[in-house]
Amino acid sequence: MSGHNKWSTIKRKKGANDAARAKVFTKIGRELAVAVKNGGPDPNTNSKLKDVIAKAKQNNVPNDNIERMLKKAAGDTDSTNFEEIVYEGYGPSGVAVVVEALTDNRNRTASEVRHYFDKAGGNMGTPGSVTFMFGKEGVIIIEKEDVDEDQLMEDALEAGASDFLTDDEDIFEIRTEPNDVGAIRDELEEKGYTIISSEPAYIPQTYTRLEDEEAMKKMAKMIEMFEENEDVQNIWHNWENEDEYEG
Fold this sequence. Notes:
Elements: H1 6-14, H2 18-39, H3 47-58, H4 63-75, E1 83-90, E2 96-103, H5 106-119, E3 123-124, E4 134-143, H6 149-159, E5 163-165, E6 171-176, H7 181-190, E7 195-204, H8 213-228, E8 232-237
Antiparallel strand pairs: 1-2, 1-3, 2-8, 4-6, 4-7, 5-6
Helix pairs in contact: 2-3, 2-4, 5-8, 6-7
């Protein structure tokens, strides 16, 4: 997922072609494997696995695929060890970028990430060089269609949400503490709400607006390169007017 404009990204992914969808499935399969390896194959006792299964369903991964991924992960004797790494850097015109990766080869991934930053006219930074510009929060997205705003707000705050945003014309955005997002998602689902997306996210504290067409083109291309890389799970940035760029 990318950026602060979650809805534009989600809509793009929902309409993705088969090749792009296959890449999303591969990334989620890797997350499932790591979650099973670290906490066991039972989502009732492994909250991280439960969260990844929810993410798989939100990304329209068929249940049969999820079952196959789980069986493979539970019976996998492969010694491959995936490492979670956060990369930081700047895109064109100083847009702050945070990249979350799961990799079995940190040298390869670091080299590719650095290349993407360089190609866009930006640069990869050191740990802590960018993340101070973001806050870590849980983000739950629900479509506005057929949802009573006042009731959802009441249910969300009662479940423990920290904030409720209605600025977007298409969606409600519920903010939580990062570790509470799964429990609040489950409680809202039990009350009949359909969750489009739910995950901890890096939320920008300030934003950078790109006015130059070439800078916007480079930034969009950089996001695309990151999203196509199988090691990259998420990219977060503070490009304010991403949704205005039509490519």
